[in-house]
Amino acid sequence: MYAVQPPAPAPVNLNGDGAGDNVGSSLVRTYRAWKGNNEFFLRGRFIFGPDVKSIFLTIFLIVAPVAVFSAFVARKLLDDFPHHSGYSILIIVIVHTIFVLITLLLTSGRDPGIVPRNTYPPTIDDHDGSADINDEQNARPHLPRIKEVIVNGVSVKIKYCDTCMLYRPPRCSHCSVCDNCVERFDHHCPWVGQCIGLRNYRFYYMFVFSATLLCLYVHGFCWVYIKRIKDSEEISIWKAMIKTPASIALIIYTFVSVWFVGGLTVFHTYLISTNQSTYENFRYRYDRQVNPYNKGVAANFKEIFCSAIPPSKNKFRAKIPLPKELSDSSRRRAVESMSPTIRKTPSNLELGIPVYNEAEEEESEYIDEFTNDEELGKASGLGAMSLNLSRVLHRGEGERQVA
């Protein structure tokens, strides 16, 4: 007596966005198998850091004071200037705010310059052949941790990244927050929820620079409004300030904010003029090394703002073979959903065939056998399966157990 072999498990959809992304096709979109700590939106079209939620706080800190300014200051100045020029105050602040938000999203929602990981470590033949053999038992050569390359006549050290299994290109560093190697790594900014690197540094500078101008704009017109009150009512400046508490709050807020965004603007203007990143600035200051990338002020600014942004090296929406770790876990979920008796020790017998409580390693081997049972049956003559999927029985053993 033999149990009928159950049907193969239904394909498990890993991302729910259509055919071709499941185990049945052995293909999955790159962003579904991404090993970094990034968050993806719109099915891989936008990539953010793991702290993406902080961007909502940043947006609030920008939009809220502009809304207060528009309602309590700019609106009151609409008719205070000839030829309706007061309307330009409101229009400019709205357009400027939209520009700040666009540069914020361009900074935080794009690939900053992530270097794709290697699937396997590089071989010795791929490099200069130098290696150390520290494991006498296995005699496995170890790649050197640091190598030197020549950049514009200056020796630059590059390090091997154990996580990404590659030698980082010059100016590349591994972000501990996003867990990626990023080209021309500057820093990880928690306010935008993203690394700042080769492909978004331009937009980051435009963001902090335009935010600085927005603070100065709001700050200045708050004082203009206070002066208009003082002149129209012929009162002291202090009494005029009391009459518009919203202006006082905005003056204090923008004064504090401009120290942050304005300070960043000045600092990064200096970095651009010397062709450094924030990371390199601190490193060179400590090591007292010569900067091999400095081309002069004009050429440095041209490199940042006038050169073409290189395309991303990652195709997040491309379909790739399903990684083994995802494939194993998906198959395990499929089998367990069909047979809830796995990992359990039943107290009864099903169809006269005993049920076994498999060990962890045996269960892992069984799942592989279940997935390829048809080929294994032809190759090794395996017999039928019990309905609980807990063990593959040879035909002779099954007959003895049933008897």
TrEMBL record:
Catalytic activity: L-cysteinyl-[protein] + hexadecanoyl-CoA = S-hexadecanoyl-L-cysteinyl-[protein] + CoA
Every Palmitoyltransferase DHHC domain range: 158-283
Keywords for this protein: Acyltransferase, Membrane, Transferase, Transmembrane, Transmembrane helix
Record GO cellular component, one term: Golgi apparatus
Membrane topology category: Multi-pass membrane protein
Name this polypeptide is given: S-acyltransferase
Major place of residence: membrane
Domain notes: The DHHC domain is required for palmitoyltransferase activity.
Pfam family, one: DHHC
The family this protein is said to belong to: Belongs to the DHHC palmitoyltransferase family.
Compartment(s) where it occurs, according to its Swiss-Prot or TrEMBL record: Endomembrane system
BP-aspect Gene Ontology terms: protein targeting to membrane
